[in-house]
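Entry for glutamic acid complex. Fields follow.
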Amino acid sequence: MAGLDERIEPIYRDVVKRNPGEDEFHQAVREVMESLGIVVAKRPELAEHKIIERICEPERQIIFRVPWQDDNGDVHVNRGFRVQFNSALGPYKGGLRFHPSVYLGTIKFLGFEQIFKNALTGMPIGGAKGGSDFNPRGRSDDEVMRFCQSFMTELARHLGEYRDVPAGDIGVGQREIGYLFGAYKRITNQYESGVITGKGLSWGGSLVRKESTGFGAVYFVREMLKIRNEDLEGRTCVVSGSGNVAIYATEKLQQLGAKVVACSDSEGYVYDEHGIDLNLMKQIKEVERGRISEYVERRTNARYVDEGVIWDVPCEVAIPSATQNELNGNDARKLIKNGCIAVAEGANMPATPDAVRAFQEAGVSFGVGKAANAGGVATSALEMQQNASRDSWSFEYTEERLEHIMADIHRLCYETAAEYGFPGDYVRGANIAGFERVADAMLALGLV
Ligand code: GLU
């Protein structure tokens, strides 16, 4: 691991000590802190006001019991979380993750990332994350509804369009957002559209929100390639995952003339040398909620590799869009050897620190998640704008806004990295630019 500045190292050690066993949170904090030595050296007021220590401590952490009954009448107890990390720039904002692996460390790493990601969008939103160790896989719609209603019974008191605005993440899509919003509406007896984002189009949702994280990641890649005087036309790409981010990253890559040859889920990957059939992928994942292995049952020319590593597939552009730490140092070295020139994180923290270092040392353009996947939350902020003005915008207008936001984020990261003497380092660029926006607001708002 890269070294930490001597002023920052004790702060990091303290974070590890005060948050035992939360490995992903430590990893996310360390990655940001590795970028900040040069900033604290230049700006002594940050140390004086303990800005880094304050940013690492969530403003509020809520952990609650979520009891619910399955279709057989059996009782289950899950744990719910909402970590309201930082509200210097706006109301808390960030998604909910429903997955059996979720524990406090997951939510804290995601919430911490969200602070800087949201700052990079330039929109007035603070950082938060929430979720539960509930596993929606194999559950009926009724069971999911009962779970969401129980979850919201507690969460509602902590939300509000000016207070905290959740959205989806892994395991939480439009179905769950609907049940959550319905429960909130009943509890509060008001139609407060701006309290949650990712809503359906007929009940306050925004066009492009569904597509925005994947589309945004591809726009970010396009900007990184522009800097290298390259484009996406004719490029062979690999997009891991097969959820919302992967599907719409694939769609935009295909629209821009690239060929996506592989996708995956937690059980294995599909390789289709003719290019992934997007309609089939959508049918399996969005309509049937099935496994990606079913793809090869309907496209016999494609190959399914059970428990395979998708990064074995040669490509020029990779968009890891499944989950955290899905791409390690060995995977990165394989990608580099196979001619990969650009990587953008569609998921949150999919590349391990070893992988990030390998990409950067090899001169691969590496778009870190808090910049590259910020299109989702940015479009959530556009949804909030539409809700506040009781308006709904066209697809074209909303997509144009997203495109501009992604180009602005890219420029900000690129220019910040250059200004601090690390040209082309989007990790440092994103961390420093996001941090400075939050830090400046915290300084202005005083010790609160
Ligand atoms: N879960 C998404 C993210 O990681 C979206 C959050 C939101 O729209 O609030 O950024």
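NOTE: The radius of gyration is 21 Å.
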